[in-house]
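quick one, two chains, predict together pls
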Amino acid sequence: MALSSSSSTLLRRLLGSTPLSSSRSSVLRAAFCSSSSSGPSPTLPPPSTIFGDDTEVANVPPLTTPKLFVSGLSRLTTDEKLKSAFAPFGQLLEVKVITDRVSGRSKGFGFVRYASLQEAETARQEMNAKFLDGWVIFVDPAKQREQKPAPQPDTASSHTGFTINKTVGWCG
DNA sequence: GTTGAGCGTT
């Protein structure tokens, strides 16, 4: 149950030649449902226990942030290329391909931010595991880059007038 | 040219 979309290395290898059978459960279901009119079967549990329900397994959890993390980008892919790929799926508030400050080239991943979650989900379901510039890209919800800047409540002076000396330096 | 894990600059 530890299926995560972060396994890009193995997935892009498999995506090279995957028949992608989506209606495999229909064949098995027909075999079970064709012989169930003569009382309960002590040897076989009800089909609902095996397959659960008509719920598809490809159900993905909804997003919680309009910001998406796009990985698997080609080194030749830039901001404009990424923007052009995610543009028709919604209003992009910000598109950024992370480039190394030293070498000045793309790191192979970027971020896209939509105006709403609806657009982000659409873009994710439409652009996840798709080809972009010859490489299979992966769209995942991005983390919050904004970590607490200064959550220090008692950084000023207290009413008691005492000031804690935080100089816990080395005694040597 | 630089081939592949990962979460960014202001």
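Confidence is low (pLDDT under 50) at residues 1-37, 161-165 of chain A.
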